[in-house]
Amino acid sequence: MPKVLSAGRIASYRANGYLSPNDALSPAEVARYREQLDRTEAQLGGSLMAIDKKYRGNLHFLCRWVDELARHPAVLDAVEDLVGPDILLYTSRFFIKEAHSTGVAAWHQDSSYFGLRPYDHVTAWVALSDVTGQAGPVEFAAGSHIRGQLLQKSNVVKNSVNTAGQIIVEWFDQSQIDRAILKPGQFSLHHTCVVHQSAPNRSDERRIGLALSYIPTRTRYIGKRKMPACLMRGKDEHNHFELQPRPQQDFGATETQRHDVTFKAYLESFYEQLEIAEQDLPADAAATMMLR
Questions:
Q1: Is 257 exposed, middle or buried (0-12, 13-18, 19+ CB in 10 A)?
Q2: At residue 288, does pLDDT exceed 60?
Q3: Which residues contact residue 108 at a Cβ distance below 8 angstroms, ignoring those fewer than 6 apart?
Q4: Cα–Cα distance measured from residue 143 to residue 282, given in angstroms and rounded to the nearest whole number
Q5: Helix (H) or strand (E) holding 230
Q6: pLDDT exceeding 90 applies to what percent of the chain?
Q7: Selection from 52, 148, 61, 53 nearest residue 109 by Cα
């Protein structure tokens, strides 16, 4: 029996590739996590979007509050309804758009550069701010995950909030586009192959989201090395990943070293998979694709 998602909502996720909105954090929890984010940025010396890029990703290795948020029962219950009880966190990444900023994400799939098989990866995008239509919410192309992996090209999108500045370079159905309008504490869920994008933040407030990438323990990594991951729920009987412990101290020496090592591993993996995915693409592959 599902824990929190109805059979109808699970069917909707399977058909469309996303599910939004979903409730998780209370107002008090949102306020506490926003305070923790402010403290973390103050310690690091600026916005996560303006300092060393490594601090945008995998802060669950470095900060107890991010690890705690990634383990929120309301989020994990919904993820369990989609992928089963044995759950790993593969990555976490902040997507913050300052008020009236130009950052965008062009049409892309998360699956392109992750190197995970089968495509069972589901992302919970947790809002720590009000994500209105003006704030640049995530937009999903309904049913676009059904075709599997599409061709994608990197380094073609200016002001991209994605590491590679990538965009889909082949046709996909855009007849139904839905936006993930979220209140603080709500989250969306999306399949790794669903095509999605987001426009600039034209609102007067910061748009703050934390993308949590969950996979079932049965998932394999197809790259050259064994990748790190964190066991969130259940047990791991497959041993496909190097399981990492929870942080015991914010910005502790051990935690800082672990974050540095895992960041390097993820970055090397990312560019390894990017090279494989794009090795046969023509130079003008993205010429006809535009951000809506």
A1: exposed
A2: no
A3: 152, 162, 166, 167, 168, 195, 196, 197
A4: 27
A5: strand 228-233
A6: 86
A7: 148
| 3-state secondary structure string across 176-212 | CEEECCECCCEEEEEECCCCEEECCECCCCCEEEEEE
Query: Which of helix, strand or coil describes residue 58?
Result: coil
Per-residue pLDDT tens over the stretch 141-186? 999 999 999 999 988 888 888 888 899 999 999 999 999 999 999 9
d(CA 89, CA 231): 6
Token pair of 95, please? 């997507």
Yes or no: say if 207 and 132 are a contact pair by the CB < 8 Å rule: no
Tokens of 276: 């494989």
- This prediction's pTM: 0.95
Joined tokens for residue 136: 């640049």
Spell out the residues 6+ positions from residue 15 whose beta carbon is closer than 8 angstroms to its own. Answer: 143
Quickly list H helices, the chain. 7-16, 27-44, 64-70, 73-83, 253-278
Instruction: For residue 234, give every residue at least 6 positions away whose Cβ sits within 8 Å of its Cβ, in sequence order, or none.
Output: 84, 85, 86, 87, 217
Alpha-carbon distance 186 to 129, whole Å?
A: 9
Measured CA to CA, the distance from residue 71 to residue 74 in angstroms comes to 9
Cα distances (Å, whole numbers) of residue 102 to 98, 137, 144, 199, 201: 9, 13, 26, 8, 7
**Over the stretch 187-233, which tens digit does the pLDDT of each residue have?**
999 999 999 999 999 999 999 999 999 999 999 999 999 999 999 99
CA-CA distance, 131 to 30, in Å (whole number)?
13
Q: CA–CA distance from 259 to each of 46, 93, 281 (Å)?
A: 18, 13, 33
Contact 197, 93 (CB under 8 A): no
